[in-house]
Amino acid sequence: MTRRNPEIARDPDKAKRAASHPKRPGEQCKAAPGTWVPRVDRGRCEGKKDCAEVCPYDVFEIRRIDDADFAALGPLAKLKSMVHGRITAYTPGEADCRSCGLCVVACPEKAITLVRV
Ligand code: SF4
Ligand code: SF4
Question: How many helices (H) and strands (E) would you count in the chain?
């Protein structure tokens, strides 16, 4: 299957480090698909791609922020977004999330939380 961001390879070492993180939340990949979903705080996300590098289920897409999402940011977050090329993480594959929690602890900006739906 083609990955959403084929230019972003999975990083097994990073995923391994995230897997052993003491604060890893979620259900260790045992949740039924889509019972938990990742929520990205756009004011924090800097498009650093770690989430896409560790997610086993290709949930994330790293791309330019939508105009409406950019408009909803506060002034400081807008500035930060511009500094980072307006790149952010979206979650088009969230229905496949199994709540492994890897993205949450891998994100350097602490921009992701797992939410039960
Ligand atoms: S959510 Fe975190 S890990 Fe994912 S792109 Fe944004 S800053 Fe990077
Ligand atoms: S918690 Fe969900 S979105 Fe995050 S890495 Fe695991 S499967 Fe992917």
Answer: 5, 4
Q: Are 19 and 102 in contact (CB under 8 A)?
A: yes
Residue type, position 35, single letter: T
Tell which atom from ligand 1 comes closest to the C-alpha of 106: 3
CA 89 – ligand 1 centroid, Å:
6
Cα-to-centroid distance, 109 and ligand 1 (Å): 7
pTM of the model: 0.93
- Taking the chain (117 residues) in runs of 10, the rounded mean pLDDT of each run is 86 95 89 93 94 96 97 96 96 95 96 95
Report the candidate in 33, 54, 44 with the shortest Cα–Cα distance to residue 74: 44
Residue with tokens 């990083």: 11
Nearest bound ligand to the CA of residue 38:
2
Q: Does domain 12-116 have CATH number 2.60.40.150?
A: no
